[in-house]
Design goal:
The complex is a heterodimer of chains A (228) and B (408). Chain A has 228 residues and is of the alpha/beta class. Chain A is 34% helix and 29% strand. Chain A contains 7 helices and 10 strands. Chain A has a 6-stranded mixed sheet, sandwiched between helices. Chain A has a 4-stranded antiparallel sheet with strand order 2-1-4-5, covered by helices on one side. The longest helix of chain A is centred in the last third of the chain and has 16 residues, at 178-193. The radius of gyration of chain A is 17 Å and the shape is globular. Chain B has 2 domains: 3-52 and 273-406, no CATH class; 81-261, no CATH class. A 6-stranded mixed β-barrel of chain B has the order 4-5-10-7-9-8. A two-stranded antiparallel ribbon of chain B has the order 2-3. Chain B starts with a helix and ends with a helix. Classes of the chains: A alpha/beta (228), B alpha+beta (408).
Chain lengths: 228, 408
Amino acid sequence: MSQLIEIRDLRKVYAIGEEPVNALDGVSLSIDSGEFVAIMGASGSGKSTMLNILGCLDTPTSGSYLLDGTEVARRSRTELAHIRNRKLGFVFQSFNLLPRTSAIENVELPDLYLGRLGRSARRKRALELLSRVGLGGRGTHTPAQLSGGQQQRVAIARALMNEPPVLFADEPTGNLDTKSSIEIMKLFTELSNEGITIVMVTHEDDIAAYARRHLVMRDGKLIKDDRR
Amino acid sequence: MNLWMIFKVSVLAILRNKTRSILTCLGIIAGIAAVIIVLAIGKGSQTMMVKQLSSMGNNLLMVFPERHNAGPVHGGMGQGQTMTAEDAIAVKKELSHLVQAVSPMVRTSLQMIRQDRNWSSSVQGVSTDYPTIRGWDVADGRFFDETEERRCSRVCVIGATVRTHLFGDENPVGQTIRLRNMPFKVVGVLTAKGANSWGQDQDDCVLAPYTTVKRVLQGSTFNNINMMNISLRSMDMLDEAKRELTALLRQRHRLADYQDDDFETRDPTEFMNTIGSTTKLMTVLLTIAASISLLVGGIGIMNIMLVSVTERIKEIGLRMAIGATPVNILSQFILESIILSTVGGAIGVALGVGLAIFFGNLLHWPIAIDIVSALWALAFSSFVGMFFGFYPAYRASKLNPIDCLRYE
């Protein structure tokens, strides 16, 4: 399998008060296409910083980051936005769906910024993705009319809209009950089996158990890399 | 992402929160409506004024005798004795390249009697040119002719008000009224002209040949007249006409170079300028007041947009995360602001036009809706939206996606 993500000696320093804080302290890592990776660690271990940089939401202080063969460590805000739009999908702990907006329109959103599909093709793809995540008949529902698990499925469908090679998930089951959590993780497993690379941050061991590779962080350093 | 997509995104965002959107528009609606009403009233009174002034006559130029000095006593305007009917005839003959009609006027007030009714009004002695000068036709019957003028015939044409008081619903044409105990034949009735710009009822008069008024009613053997009404061929000739008229009258009155004119000319543009500058000042002041309310409306938009940026910070973070560039966010929020203010402006124009027409009818105010100024108001409201929407939109575009997503 080809390398999708490759980071070298990645550092992120936050200047909070007098003392600079090393949120990432020289992390090197590569992730192949199709992997299902869980990043774990205690609060403050640097796992969120790691995900933000991998997700091109933030830039490292130093080091290099090759995404799909291109260097993305030092890009402008606009360039990073284009990369996120085309190559990355995001699933958040709090779903982050647009309120008072139907599930279909939420799913369509990434393509509004990409403009790859026409009006009807976009609608068709959104409907397909909604049935793919098991919400076939609920396209017209607004987030308020959906349960937490259903909202997260809409968010996953939205993340898949522009066919990104990588999906980033930040505590995707953090706001869900056990039953919904298991359903969401089953969905991730299916997506992974279809070849989508998934990088997920979690602190729950039973959720991490769905991933095939575990990265454990502490004090900004990678301390464990388990492949199963 | 093209502009159409951003437009769609903005419209969807506006429709998502209808109450807030309407409240945001409210200031602009009120501001634009106020501007439209003020302009409609200003324009209306101006149009009305022009109409009233043109009802005074076609290309009218009036000449009054003055500077009648008997020893130390100065006479008032129109009291001078030096201007005569012959002057009027000379003006018509010698200045025919500038003047299309001339009528002398001699005025006298008297009691007019018909059977058991009577009415006090003024009799104006004029020439047959008078209807042309004033643009005043007879509604019934005819005007007196030159033969009657030459013969000092006892004929008259009555105004609509006099007709009402002396004849009621009867047809006056061919009937007789008594003026200073002399019978006059009514040959025609004038069309109703209404009040002039200073509220005088123009229909409350009787017109008779100036020769008749002078010789028969006043019993005078002199030829002096109270004023001269002149209709110019074109208002463009006004300055030239005034110059030549002055030269002609000075020559006829044998005035030496050191002597002042013994007459004075007046034209409606002078009144127009005086009244016009007053209404213009009013319009300017009211427009300033209305503009301030529009400014307040704009600040209202900025206010709500700033709140909206904070309130929708998670939406902004999410949009950025899924690929919205800073420019996309900036455009979205500016466009939202422009759409809100333009729609508000359109509603304001409609409301303003509606209220102007409603109150115009209710209070009998002259109203003129100017499409061009309405379009300007609309364009201006869009500009207000763009101007006041920029800062909130700029702030939104500068936000960091991570901070937005984490914001609670």
